[in-house]
Amino acid sequence: MKIFTARQIAEIDAYTIEHEPISSIDLMERAAGQIFKWIISHFPAPQSCKVFVGPGNNGGDGLALARMLADKNYAVEVFVLRITDKISDEAEANLERIRNLNTLDLYEMTSIESMPWLFKDDIVVDAIFGSGLSRPLEELSLDVVKAINASDAKVIAIDIPSGLMGEDNSKNNLRGIVRADYTLSLQFPKLAFLFPENAEYVGEWEVLPIGLHPEIIQTEPTAYKLLTREFVKSLLMPRKKFDHKGTYGHGLLISGSYGKMGAAILASRASLRSGIGLLTTHIPRLGYQIMQTAVPEAMVSIDRSDIIFTEYPDLSQFKAVAIGPGIDKKQNSFKAMIDLLKEVKVPMVIDADAINIIGEHPELKEELPMGSIFTPHVKEFERLVGKSGDSYTRNCMQREFAKKHGLSLMLKGAYTAICCPEGTCYFNPTGNPGMATAGSGDVLTGIILSLLSQGYSSHIAAIIGAYLHGLAGDLASVDVGVEALTASDIIDYLPKAWLHLKK
Ligand SMILES: NC(=O)C1=CN([C@@H]2O[C@H](COP(=O)(O)OP(=O)(O)OC[C@H]3O[C@@H](n4cnc5c(N)ncnc54)[C@H](OP(=O)(O)O)[C@@H]3O)[C@@H](O)[C@H]2O)[C@H](O)CC1
Ligand SMILES: [K+]
Fold first, then answer.
1. Which of 138, 198, 277, 421 is the most buried (most CB within 10 A)?
2. Contact 126, 156 (CB under 8 A)
3. What would the pLDDT profile of 275-297 be if each residue is shown by its tens digit?
4. What is the CATH number of domain 229-502?
């Protein structure tokens, strides 16, 4: 699903009005109708509804919604914030439609003195500002937002919480943003919904389709996309009857150190559960027996060191290489890593301490094989790319790094972001907080190595890998819950995740 900027949404809106064709007031009626349907299905018993309305079309949506709710016997009070003399034509028309209705109460607010008391059982509809917000809130709108946030009422934001910018909130006044329980976004999610620091404003969010024109949605370019099952499924390569294990590639996993052999086991098992033809796992000598016992399907390559990674086998037979899970940052590992980066010609997955080694030796960034995939969590990301004060800026740095070095850079977390060399950033919707657990990243590395070895191109392997990993975690959490979920559970649910994805 494409994610557009506020400016693009306005263009898509205008295109729809011209080419469907539909009048803009009817499009607003359609948007309000969708929100109305959502509210009556989630809050079916008519109850007290206080609708706060701003000067633009977001306010217009709120006014049309107020009329619909009043018609359905909800006790509706509408508060029109007189912030400026300007009011959009559609908001004005919807204001006229309710001005003489006796089914609702209409108030004009010129100061915070007329702010009503908000009760716990009230539904507050936030229709003050939408995608047309151009600057941080001040004066009356700021005061109203603070009062809404101080209440216990259930807050439903239309399109986007008022005060939140669709993309960049690095210079915003964070005290002037509505903290919604639910955000009902029209047709597309906003980029800001996918950043962790905005979760407290957005609450639970849903996208409500309002029938914007499919032609422009398809042709309008965007750098941001939210993955869907249909899209990820469309990337899968079919398996053919006469395929053999050579068809699905031979991958090399460099993993494990003294005390961290579990990482090698987890990544190997995940790789084997994701369709790889042959897997060789290179480990320090001490791990030999445990590896052969725990993962009999994997071949083992033994390092001369008992405890760390210091060398690697002949690379000619491998279609892809993964390095990082459970290795250490010792000097000899660093030396072996330099040699490996210079020699390797196939795509690589670079994870964990392998990322940290590169972060500590920035000169290595110039050696990175094209088509590599980096899979840092936020701390590793900072060591590799640099620090930033907010997620939007971090995302810009991430996209820039991927483009500059010609590689895929995945930032792990809720809505894992995968930035590709050509500039697109995909966000992954699968996964849950139970997956923030030891070994979860090792499993992901194993899955991606497996996909690369099977011949998927780097960014596609990263996309399928992230989606599948999160899906396995989601399916596991249904049965084991989020607290008890372990990395081994994610592996155990990979078969179900594959079936679910291909359904
Ligand atoms: N997705 C769609 O296609 C549809 C969306 N709809 C709804 O429309 C809004 C967007 O409407 P728009 O009128 O563009 O924007 P707003 O409602 O957010 O309001 C813009 C007006 O507010 C002024 N403004 C902006 N920031 C501030 C501020 N901080 N303080 C005071 N005033 C502010 C702005 O003035 P400018 O000076 O910036 O020009 C505008 O006057 C969308 O979110 C949906 O809810 C349609 O209903 C259906 C189709
Ligand atoms: K809003």
1. 198
2. yes
3. 999 999 999 999 999 999 999 99
4. 3.40.1190.20
